[in-house]
Request: fold
Amino acid sequence: MISIIILLAVATFVSTLLGGLFAIKFKDKLHFIMAFAAGVLLGVVAFDILPEIIEEIKIHNFNSVGIMLALVAGFLIFHILEKSILIQHCHDEECFTHHKHPDIGVASAIALAGHSFLDGVGIGLGFQVSPIVGLLVAIAVISHDFTDGMNTVSFMLNHKNSDRKSKLFLLLVAVAPVLGAASTLLFSLPDYFLTLYLGFFAGFLLYIGASDILPEAHAKESSYKLMALTILGTLFIFIITRFI
Reply:
């Protein structure tokens, strides 16, 4: 069982790495990638995270208010973090208009690394429930980790980080689920805290999708092609979640 968990976690590493390398190779088309990524983030929240939260509330009769507070906290904490970095580093109108700073990209990548770590934790805890649950969770994680890698590089490059730095943080995000899965061999986590995490991360995704990625995708131009890519990204996650 342990070897299966680690093997599946390694598969998430490969998936994340491939997504990031894809984004680096086609960085000249970054606005197209970001339009698609914005749809992916919306799809992950709408068709993966929120249904899972609703299911956990039904099964365990959790207090939904606390979980929604976690969602709001996820949204506001990243908003405050992003704007605090701007206030610290920006001193002219143009900087605030384009709101690009390497530290913002790094903060986004670190947040995704935390999410990826908990993805690995989810795989391990799924196997604590049953092998079938663990396998289904692993399939879901591997499926969307390609876009996690793509999003990590998109955030870094969009905020003017170098290719080398982007690759280093891509490696961090890729390794995170392996470490997360391995860590579950040492502990078990109450369901309520996992559900709180899901709410917090949903808020984070909604913020970076709506306030960061989507506006940047349309910063230079707005076209039906970009809008179609956003819709395609949402449908992509919808289809994946129908088969897991």
